[in-house]
Write a structure and sequence with these properties.
The protein is built from five helices and six strands; from the N terminus they run αββαβααβαββ. Strands 2-5-1-6-3-4 form a six-stranded mixed β-sheet. It is an alpha/beta fold. It has a single domain, classed as RbsD-like fold. Its EC number is 5.4.99.62. This is D-ribose pyranase. It is an enzyme of class 5 (isomerase). Its main location: cytoplasm. One of its GO terms (cellular component) is cytosol.
């Protein structure tokens, strides 16, 4: 049995398969995941699991060189915005409009849907390299 890290076998597999510049999107409950996209639906209930905890677990195993968020998060969800800023204090944070974000996210290798129920709690993690 695995001792630590991500225990969800699908997420563990997808994270392990990420290459440099591949994108992974972590999204809220209401996000319109593209029809043909690969995704893992983690929603148990409203708020479970939440957006920030999901990011932290993925970061336990994924090297990230840049993140992309919707600029609307700063105005409409200051609490999660500030947490994202804190978590990624040493990483480039690119802000796009929500519509631009959705267009970029379509290129994600996979999506993780969380139980988050606050507006604009969506992020694209761009995979880095460990060397």
């Amino acid at each position: 049995m695995k001792k630590q890290g991500i225990f969800n076998s699908q997420i563990s597999y997808f994270v392990a398969s990420m290459g440099h510049k591949d994108m992974l999107s972590i999204v809220d409950m209401g996000y319109p995941i593209p029809k043909d996209a690969t995704f893992v639906d983690l929603v148990f209930d409203k708020g479970i699991p939440n957006f920030i905890d999901t990011i932290k677990m993925v970061l336990y195993e994924l090297e990230v060189e840049k993140v992309i968020i919707a600029g609307e998060m700063e105005v409409n969800n200051l609490k999660n915005y500030q947490k994202v800023i804190d978590i990624f204090s040493n990483i480039e944070i690119e802000k796009k409009s929500h519509e631009e974000f959705k267009d970029i996210a379509k290129n994600s290798k996979f999506f993780i849907r969380t139980g988050e129920c606050t507006p604009f709690s969506n992020i694209i993690l761009v995979s880095g390299v460990i060397f």
